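Input/output pair, single chain:
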Amino acid sequence: MSEERGKDATRPVRALGLLSGGLDSTLAVRVLQEQGIEVGCVNFHTGFCIQSHTGAIRNPKKGAEPPRHDALHAAQTLGVKLHMVDISEDYVRIVTNPKHGYGKNLNPCLDCKIFMVAKAWELKEELGYDFIFTGEVMGQRPMSQRKDTFPVIDRDAGVRGWLLRPLCAQYMPETEPEKRGWVDREKLKNFTGRSRKPQMALAKAFSIVDYPTPAGGCCFLTDENYARKLQDLWQFRDSKAYSMEDIVLLKAGRHLRPRGDFKLIIGRDESENHFLSGFKAGRMTIRAKNLPGPFTLLEGSPDKEGLILACRIAARYGKGKNRSEVTMVVEGETGSDAFTVIPMPAHQVEKEWHV
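Output:
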């Protein structure tokens, strides 16, 4: 596989790693750098990365630094080239039909890892790296980081023998880079389990102090609330298809489905109101006339009775919620209508409406 190195054995060994910017992937890079290996990294965008959109939804306070991208920050700190690759379009089939099933929520972790490793291998071949590596630790994650699933990943991704896991390599069979003497196995690690104490100790030894909280979630599909909203979307469309706009909208606002023919997305603060206002196309909007209140998106095609119900619900979350009547303006692609409604009392907002 490593023909390029065979042609020029005088150049440094080159390895391509999957870098999330978290502690494990950062340490995996440093472990190989310590051996004089030239490291490059890749970060994949699936559309479900928590960090990718929370900064856009939650505006930072005045004077505060904008949210950083962990992978970019880590690459800069480590002094490695980072290839950022958008795989969101191809990733749809992983989310909607995972061969190995879902985890606790809608997280297709094993299929996701296989997909990313295969993509990294393609990039490795294209750019002339000698092997690929990850920051995986055996026993750390219940679905994709187990002794029995590591061989499945290697097999299904088509990388048997060429995927090194520097943080737990001593518990794994030797890889080709080790067999060929490119990597010193004795300098690789034997981390296992969910404790991050060994990683934190190694980070201290490497003088790495600025890293995200270990074990933090990085994918919306592992979040119970988000998974429920996505399942609701699939159920009412009778299809598992989704667009990037769909999955971004699931990340913001209150989602309520009072009836089967429409759903409301109600902003919870100024930042969300501003964010949701960018998604008017193809949807109706609801706002109180001459009163502060949330920006509300309406998805679907309700009749007049449904629109009045939607307005009453939206009014319940605005400054006029205690008034006897509030005028709500509904705007769509064909024009606008005003409805004077009685704001719905909090106790009448059914729990099952909340997606």
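DSSP finds 13 helices and eleven strands in the chain. The chain has a mean pLDDT of 92.
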